[in-house]
UniProtKB/TrEMBL annotation:
Pfam families, sorted: SecG
Gene name of the encoded protein: secG
Superkingdom, taxonomy of origin: Bacteria
InterPro entries: SecG
Chief subcellular location: membrane
The protein's role, per its UniProt record: Involved in protein export. Participates in an early event of protein translocation.
Keywords from the UniProt entry: Cell membrane, Membrane, Protein transport, Translocation, Transmembrane, Transmembrane helix, Transport
Protein name in the entry: Protein-export membrane protein SecG
Length: 122
């Protein structure tokens, strides 16, 4: 439950970060110039809008990083969260444990080779 909630918050923060970055223009245009209409700082000023966008970008980026790190700690790790592959491997090992004295393929070939030669001789 906590993990799913963190994933949703991460998605929201990521989308907000994308929108904030897209609004910015590195040459001083973007939202700051459209708010002022190209004139000298009538609505809050260009500098304050750029400062707000810069602070919002950094805040969202740091928040996103912190949420991602926090979500790695919140991943459920109980028996119910095992993958199907892990369950299959565990069942296979319980049914047929690995034999330490398993024959090599060369041993099998060498055992069958004399039997085939004796059949050809008959």
């Amino acid at each position: 439950m906590t993990y799913n909630l963190l994933l949703i918050v991460i998605m929201v923060v990521a989308i907000l970060l994308i929108l904030i970055v897209l609004v910015q223009n590195p040459k001083g245009g973007g939202l700051s110039s459209s708010l002022t209409g190209g004139s000298g700082g009538t609505i809050g000023g260009v500098q304050s809008t750029n400062n707000f966008l810069d602070k919002a970008t950094w805040t969202l980026a740091i928040t996103l990083l912190a949420l991602i790190l926090l979500s790695s700690l919140a991943i459920p790790r109980d028996e119910a969260s095992k993958s199907e592959l892990q369950n299959t491997i565990q069942q296979r090992d319980e049914v047929a444990p690995v034999d330490d004295k398993a024959a090599d393929i060369e041993d099998i070939i060498n055992e069958n080779a004399p039997a085939e030669e004796s059949k050809e001789a008959e």
